[in-house]
Structures are given as structure tokens and as C-alpha cells.
Structure prediction request, 394 residues.
Amino acid sequence: MAKQTIADIPLNGKTVLVRVDFNVPLDESQQITDDRRIRMALPTIEKILTGGGRAVLISHLGRPEGNGQDEKFSLQPAADRLSELLDRPVAFAKDTIGVDARQKVDSNAEVVVLENLRFNAGEKTGDINFAEHLAGFADVYCNDAFGTCHRTDASMVAVPKAMQGKRRVVGFLVAREIEYLSDILADPARPFVAILGGAKVSDKIGVIENLLGICDHVLIGGAMAYTFALARGGHVGDSLVEPDKVELAKQLLQDGGEKLILPVDTHCGDTFAADCNKQVFVAGEIPAGFMGLDIGPQTASHYANLVADAKTVVWNGPMGVFEMPPFDAGTRAVAEAIADSDAISIIGGGDSAAAIEQLGFADQVSHVSTGGGASLAMLEGKNFAAVEMLDQVD
Ligand code: AMP
Prediction:
């Protein structure tokens, strides 16, 4: 899936329309509480500027509903923050394809941020007219919004389509995500171990199926392990399970054979609270009155050993309720093993990214994905229309 990047094309004198992911969290007073997504876009923006180009940045933020409350979804705070980070002026257009956008694009501003794309209903519906307006703003299209790559919103698909004949490339952030979540998985160094956890089997079915076809071992943790335990005829007490997914879990167990590895013990509590009565039970032997809240110590050390022997590791989903110590122990053990290993290590977005950051190991892994849904979809082996249509490396 090798795609041309922003580093592969001439930029001097070009206006580049960059689809970024500035969907940052804001507090009540419109202050950005985490600017990571803006910082992640800096290398691409700086490349354009040092190459002699101009950048017109487009993004969505939140889910505005057009009910008069949209102000709180404005991209103005993101534009202001970007200006601070770049240490240069950033022009902000108060609309997406209106008079102000046209004026700012036609000005000599080197960096322009247009207002939230979702203020225009055409963004979600993939409206061609909306897309053509945006397409008309630039000479080059650049997709650096990994978190939205699995979607078919206008700015992701209809805009690059409308820019056919112009250069259409990926930014550094998307290039890196594709490298780790797709290219490396196509030809992984072995043993290749996947660790999958989280609350629900239903969210991860596609990932489990795809990775069972590629990995040497798929290790299961989190609440979804209890649905697998039920499928094996075990007892899970009051643990979180998906009874309607038991048949599917049976099928996955059958398809996975020895590749699919389940916990051998479970750290349980008598309530969902840090100060509950705690006890470790053999997996599948949890009595009524207890719920599984983490993998047990034997499982944690077994999983850590498998990670230590691996050459490629993919991790998606915590091993237990990592937000509530001591039930973070299993997640911590796995994170520590990944951090200590020399394997290529890829951390899926969402909760596993939050866990590895919270535990302080984010710098010791090869890649922490920035996309939740997009990273899961890529681990499912799905192709993204938004990426497919961009210029291929010859
Ligand atoms: P996911 O978004 O599917 O990756 O799930 C992450 C969430 O699963 C986290 O908030 C964890 O607290 C939760 N989780 C993991 N293990 C358990 C468990 N054994 N019981 C309840 N929730 C769990």
C-alpha cells in the first residue's frame, strides 16, 4: 500500500489542502485539554512551509448538530494553538467554503485553518458540490488525518476524487500509521504475537479473525476472555460477558486452535471497586459473587514470556480494568514486557494507547497509533477508500 508522501513531491509555490485531525478535546471554556493531535500534524505542516508551499488545513471537531450550539465546536482554539506551536501567524476562516474561506485562501497567509468541516452538512454526506469547492482551494491534496481514514466523509474521499490530476499524497502521520499497521503486518518478523483485550469480543471479532490468519499467537485478556471462558463451558461468576457472542467465541476457538491463548487465572473482586474483596481464581472457575477484573499473575507472566520471545507484537485493549488499581497489574505486566522487548511493537489506538501512556512506556515502543476506530479497522485488514485513491509509489 506504499503511498507517495508529502516528502516526495515539489512544494515550492504550491497551496496544499491538508486534511488534518484537529478533533481535540476542549473544556467548558473552549480551552484545549490535550493538544497531541495538533502536535502530531506539525511535521507535515512544517515540511510544506520549509518546501516553499502554503498550507490550507481542514478538519472536523466533535459532532456539531446545527442546533445553534455549534460555537463550542469551532476550530478557532485549534488554530490559535497551532499558531503558538508553529511560532508564526495562522489565519482562521470563519466558514468552510464561504466568503471568508475564499478570502483567507486568496490572501498571502502561509497557514490557513478553515472552520469545522462538519458545520457544513455536506461533509458527512460526501456532497460533491462541497468537495469541489474545497478542492478548488489548492494545487495538492494531503491526507494526514489517520483518525478519520476509515471514514468516507467528503474531505476524505470526495475531495481527493475532485482533485484527480493533481498530486494527492499522505502526510507523515498517515504514512507512519500505514507502515506499522499495514506494511509491517504484511510481512512480519516472527514470532508474531498479538495481545487483544478490552471490554467486548464484539468490537474485536474482525481483528481476532484477521490476526489469527497472520500471527503465531493471539493472547486474549480483558472482559472478553470471560465470553471465551463461557464458550469453553467455564463458570465466570458475575463477570462482564456477552452471552449472545458465545457461539461466535466457540467458532473462533475452533478456528484459532492452539494459536488462540486464553488466561489460565483471573484476578477477581466481589464488587466493581478498588477496595473490594479480592481473590485469584483458576480461569473458568469463578464462583457466583465474584467478577473477573484482570488477568491473574500466572497468565500475566505467561503472556510476558511470550512477548519476550516475540519479534513483532501488536497490542490492542487492556488486560483488565486498568483504570482501577490493583486491577491494572495485568495490563502493566504486558506493557512492561512490550517496553522491555526488542520486538517491533505496535500499540493500537484508544484505550491501549491511553494505558501505555498512563503507565509511562509510550517512548519504549515502536509505534503508538493515533486512531481508535481507524487502527482497529486497519488491524482487521480493511482497505480504506480515503487512502486507496492517493498517489502510489511507482
Ligand atoms: P475497549 O474499549 O473495548 O478496548 O475496552 C476498554 C475498557 O475495558 C477499559 O475501560 C477497561 O476498564 C475495560 N475492561 C477491561 N477488562 C475488564 C473487565 N474484566 N471487566 C470490566 N471491564 C473491563
